[in-house]
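> run fold Precorrin-8X methylmutase
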Amino acid sequence: MTTEPRKTGAGIEDLVEMTTEIDPELVAICNDLGSQTDEAKAIYMTSRNIARKLVGDETVEDRVKQRCVTSTGDPAVADIMRFVNDPVKAGVEAIKRGAPILVDINMVKAGITKMGHKCEIICVLDKDEDAELARKYGITRTAAGFLKCRDMLEGSIVAIGNAPSAAFAVCRMIESGIRPAIIVGTPVGFVNAAESKEAVRSMDVPSITCVGTRGGTPMAVACVNELVAIANESKCKCKCATE
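> ok
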């Protein structure tokens, strides 16, 4: 027996409705590269303005915190974020030179904006597709993926939003002499998440992390996307200064 798809009497024009009022001023000043329509820009800027009031707006670190607050809907995450060894400057410089962005899971890869930079975004899971290395050594696929990418790690942008084991693997490679440009580490969960982020902070490498069990993909993505936004603003200023 076949079933016919249900048809509605409404045309697409009848179903199109904006979810928020459009403020032209907010649309005009929106700097979010992922917001392509007026509705998306208005939503982003309204959320961002709320976050500015909650977090403050004095430093570039505040800007990263604002984005994490808007991405999680949780103002408290601003208080658990940690910035070590001037990571915003390091991250912006890495983005400007097109450093590869190595991420632990495809959700992080999907969330990072593809606009405003020439960085290749690589999910390390794709480097050990058959889990050969993971099975051989009995480690997680994300840890194995970063080990597979060890020759790409020098000078790269590392973004880990899910897997504590991946963060530990990166730390071991740093101890062996490899140096990424920056680590964005926000693994989430009750097993090793807090400890892995503490390990990242102990490395002599620029890092953005959070304290405790909270974190996750939205925070990792927010951090990288804000670094891209800041990199594009500084590019514009440099260009305008020479004109």
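The chain has two domains: 20-55, 60-242.
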